[in-house]
Specification:
There is one protein chain. The protein is mostly helical. Strands 1-2 form a two-stranded antiparallel ribbon. Strand 1 and strand 2 form a beta hairpin. The chain is globular, with a radius of gyration of 19 Å.
Length: 339
């Protein structure tokens, strides 16, 4: 096995920073949305506001940075629409339906089985068995998430809720696989730029969730009541703007860019850290205490990620793939991971 080149290592480090930044941003979603729901908003209304704000901010940013993003989105309309409907709108819709039938911990645990689905899908489609270290890392990471979410404390389960939760997991797995296909360098070429995918996907996702709410499929209730964030009473506008900016526009953009630099399998495991960031954000913004069990679970997740990362590096693949592939492939901005 060839030693990783400096450029390949830098490529990985940047991807890891972007993926962790995305997970940190996504982790702000729950506490911010909860502040709106405690102010009388329905979950669908909070999701609609979140996606609409993110879509507006991303459209403005995309227009400034990649002026041709709209044309590129239309050129790749099938991918953009699929991304907006499945990883964005679908994941939100299915998760909130799961919460309606299950405890939050169990619903989150089901959604975060996505890395297992990614590993299984790549195993089935590439016919390459993951290394024992990778499989051990997956198992440890999932076990750590169970401790972080404390799913065994007062959890209740029903079949309908489990179905919704697993559907959310499928959508989350699609997020990693679809984000892996973007081009990080081409803003106006044949490739699909991450900013274009994020902006176009959010526009499609917003429209889909809004239509479902307007049609009465899910309750759509807004209020003008003040919200409480980090112990401060503020206008509902503050958490709405924060939702659109941090866990939506920033999170999806960083996530797409990070996943395109990492293998989808490892990126999906890195994004498990979102749960830890969500617990931390709930402590900072909502005053929800972090227990010793959750802290231990966080450590277990990190150990699992380290094992999975080592397993990825130790695998000998038939085709050149990061970090052992030719550096020129990575400098071109194209991923060479499994398709």
């Amino acid at each position: 096995m060839a030693a990783p080149t400096p450029a390949a290592v830098d490529h990985f480090r940047l991807g890891l920073v972007l993926a962790v930044g995305s997970a940190l941003s996504f982790g702000m979603s729950g506490p911010l949305a909860k502040s709106l729901m405690e102010a009388g908003w329905s979950p669908t209304a909070a999701v609609t506001a979140r996606l609409a704000g993110g879509a507006l901010l991303m459209a403005i940013y995309a227009t400034l940075v990649t002026p041709g993003w709209a044309r590129q989105a239309l050129k790749h309309a099938k991918t953009v629409v699929a991304y907006g409907l499945i990883p964005i709108a679908g994941a939100q819709l299915f998760y909130y339906n799961a919460v309606a039938h299950l405890s939050v911990g169990v619903a989150l645990l089901l959604e975060y089985t996505a890395p297992i689905l990614v590993v299984a899908w790549l195993w089935a489609t590439t016919r390459r068995r993951p290394s024992n270290l990778t499989l051990a890392g997956v198992a440890l990471a999932v076990a750590g998430i169970m401790l972080v979410l404390n799913v065994f404390s007062g959890a209740h389960v029903n079949v309908v809720g489990v179905g919704w939760g697993l559907a959310a997991a499928v959508c989350a797995a699609c997020y990693f696989m679809m984000s892996d296909r973007v081009n990080n360098t081409s803003a106006d070429g044949d490739g699909l730029h991450p900013i274009t995918l994020a902006a176009g996907g959010l526009v499609v996702g917003t429209a889909a969730v809004a239509v479902l709410g307007a049609a009465g499929v899910m309750p759509l209730r807004f209020t003008a009541n003040d919200a409480v964030v980090a112990g401060w009473t503020t206008s509902w506008v503050v958490p709405v703007i924060a939702l659109g900016l941090i866990p939506t526009a920033i999170a999806y953009t960083l996530g797409i860019m990070g996943i395109a630099r990492l293998r989808p399998r490892f990126a999906s495991l890195v994004c498990l850290s979102e749960v830890m960031f969500a617990v931390l954000a709930a402590w900072l913004l909502l005053g929800e205490a972090i227990t010793a069990t959750q802290a231990i679970g966080g450590a277990v997740v990190l150990i699992g990620l380290a094992l999975a990362r080592q397993g990825d590096r130790s695998e000998r693949l038939d085709e050149a793939m990061w970090p052992d592939g030719p550096v020129e492939e990575w400098e071109s901005g194209q991923t060479v991971g499994p398709r």
